[in-house]
Design goal:
The complex is a heterodimer of chains A (289) and B (488). By secondary structure, chain A is an all-alpha fold. Chain A has eight helices and no strands. In chain A, helix 1 runs antiparallel to helix 2 and helix 5 runs antiparallel to helix 6. The longest helix of chain A is centred in the first third of the chain and has 39 residues. Chain A is globular, with a radius of gyration of 20 Å. Chain B is an alpha+beta fold and 488 residues long. Chain B folds into four domains: 101 residues, no CATH class; 98 residues, TATA-Binding Protein (2-Layer Sandwich), CATH 3.30.310; 133 residues, no CATH class; 87 residues, no CATH class. In chain B, the strands form five sheets. Chain B has a six-stranded antiparallel sheet with strand order 2-3-22-23-1-24, with helices on one face. In chain B, helix 7 packs antiparallel against helix 10. The termini of chain B are far apart. Classes of the chains: A mainly alpha (289), B alpha+beta (488). The interface between A and B is large, with 70 and 69 residues.
């Protein structure tokens, strides 16, 4: 195949990818808007439409990620553009999976769609979609397992925080939004169960990151800002899980810890890049910036 | 007869004992864990706000706003400061004490409440003794429950993974991990070494671990030599994306008004791998050899050798000069007789995978450009020349050296063991299923009822499933359960 053919083929594929990704971002935006209408009007129709739009966006989004995987010939989370896309899609898919048990209750979808829209727009407007070869440190089994599990845990934490925030904000009038009072406890327990599910994944993510750093750079821990923030996130979720066993803390304080954990998770993924740049702190995770 | 001093001593000892007992009680509580973990999280945050390893004088010179705080709490080396170590120590004590307490509880006799609130009840058509026997048979033989307690009116049985052992195991695994971290903190050290092909070198560390430093027992010179046999680099050709910085232009691309374009740059090669064939030589024999690369270190004699990068030196002949210039690649060089600073790129040599999938052996080349100019660089191949400011510059040779870091860290193995224990136990404990079932047969007023109380642990546990199975099995037998009025 001549170079001209390769270059125009890759340009064409990228243009298709960008158009689809923009359309997906638009659908996430529409879903967010309908979620807000649902919150304001308490109308089930708007909630259902918002929910269906999330399905309409997440399925092609997963397809788009698959397309990029084939195009790049590797797992699609080397650059921040790819990670943001993965982050948005995995959060929405996780919510769609979890929400099967809570049919007719759409509130948590608002935060999920807002995050998916934010992540997609950030990727599209601020990052380059170029596909680059893997640099030597990233050519490791540890890289893939580390990132896949860390992102999987992020998706789970997002949905847990969405449920927690919905519970805190609307628990006294949940029936107006389609969740009868007798189901409220079970719904709130889902947030706890999601953390129980995500916590070992995050633990493995941190452990595999340390093992990878040990193989690549000879140091399993170097107090890199990203490493430290992942440890902060882990610690805050450990606080949450322990507080769930203390009678005095298992109610609202535990919920606050869950939301703090979610904020720390966002800080680990995105905020720390900004912090490292702002303070001029060197980071080994600079390739993901 | 006790003297006043004796009494004082006794009082003092008793106060000390009380204080220790109070501390132990506090440190064995989960509530303390919550506060200590919170404190630990806050202290980690502090360490990411202040640049670690920074120089205090530099911080003051640059107009740092928290000079007093930074000095008082050693915030520029926070993770080895007394404040952080004190918080960490308290947390470790809490973790160790909780783990010991859990261990003791594993062997203590388990106590269960005298009465349970039924979560499911069945009216049965048989007498109480038969109902009891049949229920026990079903739970034991068909559902695999083990008897735990039969001393009270409620019979207690369990099934599934031993969650109490697992809970203990992941806490113990974390303790082992912390021991590994402590070993690293006390004994680990690292250094770098640069190897030229064919020149053996002895490993003589210039740093040492904290404990070795205190004992004045410096890191010994190794009794073997390191030899770099060969060094190779592999490249992949990649195209460059012409992507606009402007957000409106990016949106235009999303709307299909503009196409993204790929193009080839002057030097389209991307280093995807570099490998160093390393030999450990002792006397006249080879003790070990391995081709190391990033993510593939060589372990020998307690040390681990990592390939960190490489250094290239170029030999440039200017005009017909007798003495060639020996310069570093990826650096600027002033050509004698010229005012131009020449910016040299990385020397490309080795195998390259082309965009069309073919692989070829490269003729070594380096990119060169006027460092002040924004023009595209030129390519200078081995034994070829370019003209710089009227001077003929020829690349007549090059050398490559491998930069290795090596590390002695006895904590890693301990950390691995602890980490694997903690991870396996954590996954099994949180995902696996465990059921605690209590049942009691009531036969008041000739109505026989079997009451069940089922609790579970683990995400895969489903008490509803167990309840349904019990109902199915009771129906299949001759107990013929009838639903209680409130269950209809």
């Amino acid at each position: 195949m001549s170079y001209d053919v390769i270059l125009s083929r890759d340009s064409f594929l990228l243009s298709v990818e960008l158009r689809i990704f923009w359309a997906i971002a638009l659908i996430y935006g529409a879903s967010l808007l309908l979620h807000l209408v649902h919150i304001a009007s308490r109308g089930a129709l708007a909630g259902r439409a918002a929910y269906l739009l999330l399905w309409a966006a997440a399925v092609p989004h997963a397809g788009l990620i698959l397309l990029r995987t084939f195009e790049a010939g590797r797992a699609p989370f080397q650059t921040l553009y790819e990670s943001l896309s993965w982050f948005a899609c995995s959060a929405v898919l996780t919510w769609l999976f979890v929400s099967r048990k809570w049919k007719g209750f759409f509130l948590p979808g608002a935060l999920v769609s807002a995050l998916a829209l934010g992540a997609s727009l950030y990727a599209l407007l601020s990052r380059s979609p170029a596909i680059e070869p893997l640099s030597p440190p990233l050519q490791s089994w540890w890289f893939e397992s580390h990132v896949i599990l860390a992102f999987f845990s992020y998706a789970v934490f997002i949905v847990s925080a969405s449920i927690e925030i919905s519970w805190l904000a609307f628990r006294k009038r949940s029936d107006l939004y389609g969740l009868p009072e007798e189901k409220l406890k079970g719904f709130h327990d889902t947030a706890h169960r999601l953390i129980l599910f995500g916590f070992p994944l995050l633990t493995f993510g941190i452990f595999s990151g340390a093992a990878w750093a040990n193989e690549a750079w000879g140091r399993y821990w170097s107090w890199d800002p990203k490493e430290t923030w992942s440890l902060i996130t882990w610690t805050v979720f450990a606080v949450y899980l322990h507080s769930k066993t203390v009678p005095a803390l298992k109610g609202t304080p535990a919920s606050v810890f869950n939301i703090l954990g979610f904020i720390c998770m966002l800080m680990t993924f995105l905020g720390v890049n900004w912090l490292a740049k702002l303070l001029g702190i060197p980071s080994l995770h600079i390739y993901s910036v | 007869m006790k003297t006043r001093t004796d009494i004082k001593n006794i009082e003092w000892l008793s106060s000390l004992r009380k204080a220790l007992a109070w501390s132990y009680r506090k440190l064995s509580s989960i509530e303390t864990s919550v506060w200590l973990l919170s404190l630990l999280a806050i202290s980690f945050m502090v360490g990411t706000i202040f640049p670690q390893g920074g120089d205090f004088d530099e911080y003051v010179k640059e107009g740092g706003r928290f000079v007093l705080l930074v000095e008082a709490f050693d915030l520029l080396a926070f993770f080895s400061s007394p404040l952080f170590l004190a918080i960490a120590l308290l947390f470790v004590l809490n973790l160790v004490i909780c783990t010991c307490e859990r261990y003791k509880a594993l062997f203590a006799k388990r106590r269960f409440p005298e009465s349970f609130a039924p979560t499911k009840s069945f009216l049965v058509t048989q007498d109480a003794i038969r109902a009891h026997d049949e229920t026990r048979r079903i739970l034991n033989d068909s559902l695999g429950f083990r008897l735990v307690d039969k001393d009270n009116a409620w019979i207690v049985m369990e099934k599934g993974l031993p969650y109490r052992w697992l809970t203990w195991a992941y806490h113990a695994g974390l303790v082992v991990c912390l021991i590994g971290v402590l070993f690293t903190f006390l004994f680990a050290f690292e250094d770098t070494i640069t190897l030229k092909p064919g020149s053996p070198q002895t490993v003589i560390p210039t740093t040492t671990g904290r404990v070795q430093y205190i004992w004045q027992n410096g890191s010994p010179q190794t009794d073997y030599h390191l030899l770099l046999d060969s060094f190779t680099t592999e490249y992949e050709e990649s195209h460059e994306l012409d992507y606009p910085d402007d957000r409106k232009a990016r949106l235009a691309m999303g709307l299909g008004w503009k196409m993204p374009e790929h193009k080839m740059s002057v030097d389209p090669l991307f280093a995807t791998d570099w490998k160093a064939k390393l030999k450990i030589i002792g006397g006249s024999s080879t003790l070990a050899e391995k081709e190391i690369e990033i993510n593939e270190p060589l372990k020998y004699g307690g040390y681990t050798f990592y390939l960190m990068g490489f250094e290239q030196r170029l030999k440039l002949r200017v005009n017909d000069s007798f003495m060639p210039l020996d310069v570093k690649a990826d650096d600027d060089v002033i050509i004698p007789g010229s005012t131009i600073a020449l910016s040299l790129g990385t020397l490309r040599t080795g195998k390259a995978k082309r965009l069309d999938g073919t692989i070829d052996e490269l003729t070594p080349y380096v990119t060169v450009k006027d460092s002040a100019s924004k023009d595209e660089p030129a390519i200078l191949k081995l034994n070829e020349s370019i003209i710089v400011d009227g001077n003929i510059v020829t690349l007549i040779g090059f050398t490559e050296q491998a930069i290795l870091s090596y590390r002695y860290d006895p904590g890693v193995t301990i950390l691995w063991i602890g980490g694997i224990i903690a991870l396996v136990a954590l996954f099994l404990r949180l995902y696996g299923s465990y059921y605690l079932l209590a049942y009691k047969v009531d036969d008041a007023d000739a109505i026989v009822t079997v009451n069940f109380n089922i609790t579970s642990k683990g995400l895969l546990a489903s008490p509803e499933h167990i309840e349904n199975r019990i109902e199915e099995l009771l129906t299949a037998g001759d107990l013929k359960p009838l639903a209680l009025p409130e269950q209809t």
